[in-house]
Amino acid sequence: MNKVTFLRGGRYHEKANDVYRMAQEDFDAIDFESEIWITRLEKFVNRHKNEQVARLKELKRYALADNNIKYRPAKTDEYAADNRIASDFARYITIFEQGYMLGQPVQYKNEVAELQEQIDSFNRQNNEAYHNILIKTDLSIYGRAYELLTVDLIDGKASVKLNKLDPEKTFVVYDDTTDNKSLFGVYYYSIDYGDGVRKDFINVYTDDMIYMYVNNNQDTDGLKLKNYDEVWFKGVPINEYSNNEDRTGAYEPVLDSIDAYDLSQSELANFQQDSLDAILMVTGNPYTGTAENDIDEEGNIVPNSRLAVSLAFKRARIMIMDDNPNPNGSTPDAKYLVKQYDTEGSEKYKQRLVNDILRFTFTPDTLDANFSGNASGESMKYKLMGSDNRRVMQQRLYEKGLMRRLRLAVNVWRIKGNDSTAYDDINETNIVFTANVPKSDAEIVGLAAQLVGQVSDETLFEILSTVTGIDAEVEMERIKQEVGETPPARRPVIEDEVTE
């Protein structure tokens, strides 16, 4: 692995987060089998590998706690402690973000019953709630995420499938207009069969076709078009999500602070280890080396020389400070050499780094004494205000990707005869995000009690669903079964009926 520069200079290529574009007229003129296009495609892939993948790989390393501290140059003193302790801030921040936004699954609501049923079936078939978490995890790590929509035909009907793609191997090329229309998506990968046998694959997805290229790496033919197939999405089936307008990861802005914290922790561990292995300094003893020269003619250390004995003592963690054989010399003494450690100053420095890391990523510190489980709902809102503002902004971008997913899916459903719903109906889908925060059951029940007579029963049951775990429609149906078809009389919600 290449040497990692520690806390110095820029981390990434200046184009590490660029969006790739192509003029619409150039795209329209492409012959996807021509050598000119294949050469241009290889240039796109090589730019992605050379300019952007290094950043993506480093962000992934931090998510796995494989931080830059592990690649810091070794100490020149081979006998000194050299610990490399990597903190797991990146994963902590990532898990908080994904749980805060998607711990409660996204809900889709559409007034067209047939379309609502189709959306629910689509989500169940793809385990959509978990797939969304995978997408959000990539957003927090890389600042971007990709999914591929594919189609399976079962008895003449189309089933749309969701597949998460690796951001280190995927990119989308957009047009040069302000509409930011995607022209094609690229997913490339390699299969290594061992013994130098490798195949490289590049798949290009347009709004109506998929082109599959392969390079066997065993001849001079290079990359060639292997196959192509039709797609029915009427749009590029690779769907790109962005974490923010700059496409930066959740912890990317604080990587320097994470590195500083790792260094502080590692040096503290080194201090502790060196203190346990402190050198015993002996004074007043005659020097025991007898050889006249330290190094022989061949450059080797002479046994029992001054240098050899010094190294032996160093390995034994002993230092001889007096080599005067005079019996009237200094009085013999022995003591350990231990550095002084500013415990209070070091702990304050580390705490300041922790505070900066969490504050600048809008992540609450659950170990903070003021972040108490006894705090009221209103006080919790103030503590989470920064996190909530960030979440709302990210939800807007996430919702944009989810709506594009639904539009692509409904195109397939209509073309392959799954339903006859008008395309515009899908745009009326309401996507609901619910922040996943601790809530007091007593406060929720009390709120519902105050709303009796002011809102519908269904709205009340929607509010109480977080306490009972029962969907509002199911609860309404249960009440109808209990009292017959006559609508239930409104009655106050009694707090004692639900325990915290």
In short:
This protein is flat.
Low-confidence stretches: 491-500
Gap from first CA to last CA? 53 Å
Largest sheet: 6 strands, mixed
Tell me the number of helical segments per DSSP (H or I, 4 or more residues long).
13
Strand content: 15-25%
Mean pLDDT figure: 82
Helix content: 25-40%
Shape: flat
In sequence order, what are the helices and strands, one letter per element?
Answer: EHHHEHHEEEEEEEEHEHEEHHHEHHH
Please state the structural category. Answer: alpha+beta
Number of strands: 14
Strands of the widest sheet, in order across it, are: 1-5-6-7-8-9
Rounded to an integer, what's the Rg over CA atoms? Answer: 32 Å
Describe this structure as you would to a colleague.
The protein is α+β, with helices and mostly antiparallel strands and 500 residues long. The chain is 40% helix and 18% strand. It is built from 13 helices and 14 strands. It has helices at 24-28, 35-63, 89-102, 113-125, 128-142, 255-276, 306-315, 343-360, 377-383, 385-415, 441-451, 457-468, 472-483; strands at 20-21, 104-109, 144-154, 157-165, 170-174, 182-194, 197-205, 209-215, 224-230, 238-242, 279-283, 318-320, 333-337, 430-434. Strands 1-5-6-7-8-9 form a six-stranded mixed β-sheet, with helices on one face. A three-stranded antiparallel β-sheet has the order 4-3-10. A hairpin with a 3-residue loop joins strand 7 (197-205) and strand 8. The radius of gyration is 32 Å and the shape is flat. It starts with 19 loop residues before the first strand and ends in a 17-residue tail after the last helix.
